[in-house]
Amino acid sequence: MDNLIASEHLEPTILVCPNFYYLGFTFADYQTNATLQTEYLDVDGYSAFFNAVRENFNAYLFPFIEANYRVSTARSKKAFGGLALGGTFALTMLFNSTQNFSSYAIMSPTPGPAAGDPIYNTTGLNDVGIFNGAGFYDNTFPAAREWEVALDKEEIGYLSHYPMNGAHQWSTWQQMLYVYLKDVLWEPTPYSSETNTRAIGTLPDY
User: Fold this and answer.
1) N or C: which end of the chain has fewer CB within 10 A?
2) Helix H segments across the chain?
3) Which residues make Cβ contacts (< 8 Å) with residue 72, sequence separation at least 6?
4) pLDDT tens, position by position, for the chain (206 residues)?
């Protein structure tokens, strides 16, 4: 990220990397089915847990950042993203915080809401930028693609990137993050075919 800023491919940006542990509660407090949890399919449990995390961040983390760092409070200058379970958290933020963030990077998430879910009536979904994807050999590849099918049915635009040789691993997310930071973040939202044209081919798939 520092190199992208230094090379003027990314405007000065502060990246905050929190986690959702040691907050006084755990996913076990919210899981609805142990089998679904083992298979990363407990959509309702993840939604409840990450909504609790969202409320915690709204109450403590975000106010702390804004009070102690020179950051913009404008929605158009704030983004949220995550990978793996963090990608699932980013989904929760997307459906509950469109008034706070303009762009969302959702990498290798667990299953998202199915088409027809009332959550797609969330105000502002058609105004934000959505960047989604996973590695081609990632165990979350089916979830990422199925969520895009749901977005298509709901007529919600998005941009995606799928590293061809990527698995559920850091190199996959590094490539996705590079594309997002260099060619997608801070572009006008919602993301369009023109945004897509600029992002495609930023990195070779190898």
Assistant:
1) C
2) 2-6, 34-38, 43-56, 62-68, 85-96, 141-153, 170-179, 193-199
3) 78
4) 889 999 999 999 999 999 999 999 988 898 887 666 666 677 888 889 999 999 999 999 999 999 999 999 999 999 999 999 999 999 999 999 999 999 999 999 988 888 999 999 988 999 999 999 999 999 999 999 999 999 999 999 999 999 989 999 999 999 999 999 999 999 889 887 676 565 554 444 43
* pTM, 2 dp: 0.89
- Contact at 8 Å (CB) between 138 and 168? yes
Q: Are 129 and 187 in contact (CB under 8 A)?
A: yes
Helices 85-96 and 43-56 sit at what angle, rounded to 10 degrees?
Answer: 70
Judge whether 97 and 83 are in contact, CB under 8 Å: no
Distance CA 13, CA 3 (A): 12
Q: How is residue 10 written in tokens?
A: 């990314």
Distance, CA of 206 to CA of 197 (rounded, Å): 20
Token pair of 17, please? 């990397």
Counted residue by residue, the chain has a size of 206
* One-letter amino acid of 158: Y
